[in-house]
Input
Amino acid sequence: MAATPKPNSGDYFLVYGNMENLQWADGSMLDAANTWCVVSTPEDEIYIAFKANEDGEYEFNLPVGQVYTMTFGGKDYVNKKVEIDARKLEVTKKGLTLKLDMLLFTAPEDADVSAFEQPVAKFVYEESYRKLVPDMEYIEDNMRDFEKAMRKIEKESLRADSGK
Output
């Protein structure tokens, strides 16, 4: 994406970014053809589902006034969720944007990935900044669980790779 994309109207906000592979010791790259994102509402209704392009890039517009859960993943990747609370978003002439890059990773088949059943991040509208910002309290409260799970998965991945 050369320039920053724009929302299609002020009633929407644009989410865009890259899906990338968190590189383990083997230096593997993201298989963009097998990555996807599903955006759903609190009622578990799918709003949009899409694949990243060949460079792992994506972009889409969402209407203001809802809470959305974005689930990133793919055939060979651990699913990771992000929650976006757009209920208090202001309808503006230009609309708002949220750049959201997501690191995806693989895990051994029997790895415990239960820590990733909850969102890895939450975004809320901050009126003083007039934009969506990460909920730092949520992130700080859950960071230890995610880091612990990642260390364990990485160890299991390295052990599985050395056993081949």
Q: What stands out?
A: The chain is about 15% helix and 40% strand. The chain has a mean pLDDT of 85. The domain at 12-162 is CATH 2.60.40.1120 (Immunoglobulin-like).
